[in-house]
Design goal:
By secondary structure, the protein is α/β, with parallel strands linked by helices. It is globular and about 70 Å long. The strands form three sheets. Strands 8-9-13-10-11-12 form a six-stranded mixed β-sheet, sandwiched between helices. It has a five-stranded antiparallel β-sheet with strand order 2-1-4-3-5. The protein has eleven helices and 13 strands. Helix 1 crosses helix 2, helix 3 packs antiparallel against helix 4 and helix 10 packs across helix 11.
Length: about 325
């Protein structure tokens, strides 16, 4: 068993020490000192980021009390061991906290999330896309027609390919470009399509996410309770949702609403990572798994962006 010493990315004198986390077996060969990790922190298990400053095979406390790392946030070393040593020296000699010192010595590009290749994809159902194509074919918008036809065939396109090889302009591409975290296609795994709609932070927005699905869907929902009602959201399932996986503060409230409306195909999960794993088990080839929570993220995450980014990381590691 491998344990990681991690400095939490929070500027506070009270947290100016490392915390030990258990490294899951799937990450043992990947993790290195200097990497950024997503870890549960605090009694609520809220996901935070932290810097791995050391690895050991010896637990500092009872092993059963040590929480597990959720994910590695970057596949490369964030910084070298000598820079970690420099941060420790700065803390000792200049009175800063360790996290302040680390932020100073870490390369700037490692403070922001890794850049990903830019894609465009449709945020409407295939049926709606096919209808739009028919309409476009009757117009003079040939570039848009070519772009939509290829999007329907391939589901997503490299931005550069769309803008150049299809003979379209950037303005045309932007009209079709999906917003990140808004019914964003992530990956197809064993014939199952995964979509990130973390920006669906209320029932009205999440209804649009559900309506964009044309396949049997395992839906991941629930989160921070802003006091809204979920009746219309449940009613919008319309036979599309084969299983509802509920997490966060609102899971009981949503379950009661679902039962009231006659929908009983739901399960509770304790974390987003568990939801992704369970969704993979429940979905069959030709199905979809959709994160569209209908709730804010603040009970378990810093933002809907963090929630969506972690969802994509978990999916890519399936």
């Amino acid at each position: 068993m491998i344990y990681a010493d991690i400095i939490i990315d929070i500027s506070s004198d009270k947290l100016d020490r490392s915390f030990q986390y258990r490294v899951p077996e799937r990450l043992e060969k990947k993790i290195k000192a200097g990497m950024v990790a997503a870890i549960p922190f605090g009694n609520a298990g809220r996901v935070r980021k932290g810097y791995v400053i050391g690895l050991s095979d010896k637990p500092k406390i009872a092993p059963e009390k040590i929480k597990e790392i959720s994910e590695i946030c970057s596949g490369e070393e964030t910084t070298e061991s000598r820079l970690i040593a420099l941060a420790a020296w700065m803390r000792e000699n200049y009175g800063s906290t360790m996290i302040q010192a680390l932020r100073t010595v870490l390369p700037i590009q490692e403070k922001i999330k890794a850049k990903e290749k830019k894609y465009i994809c449709l945020d409407i159902s295939e049926e709606a896309g096919a209808q739009l194509l028919k309409e476009l074919e009757q117009t003079r918008f040939k570039a848009r027609t070519r772009l939509l036809r290829e999007l329907l065939e391939k589901k997503r396109l490299d931005y550069t390919h769309a803008a150049k090889e299809l003979g379209t302009t950037s303005a045309v591409v932007k009209k079709f470009q999906a917003v990140e975290h808004r019914v964003e296609f992530v990956k197809t795994v064993r014939g199952v399509d995964y979509y990130n709609d973390s920006k669906g932070t209320n029932p009205d927005a999440a209804i649009k996410g559900i309506q964009s699905m044309s396949k049997p869907t395992v839906l991941i929902g629930g989160g921070y309770d802003k006091g809204g009602e979920f009746d219309e959201w449940i009613q919008s399932f319309g036979g599309r949702v084969k299983k509802l996986l509920l997490m966060g503060e609102t899971k009981d409230k949503i379950a009661k609403t679902a039962e009231k409306l006659g929908f009983t195909d739901y399960e509770f999960v304790e974390s987003l990572q568990e939801a992704v794993s369970r969704g993979a088990e429940l979905a069959s080839e030709g199905d979809a798994v959709l994160l569209s929570p209908a709730c804010a993220s603040w009970d378990m995450f810093d933002s809907y962006e963090q929630r969506g980014t972690l969802f994509k990381e978990y999916v890519r590691n399936l």
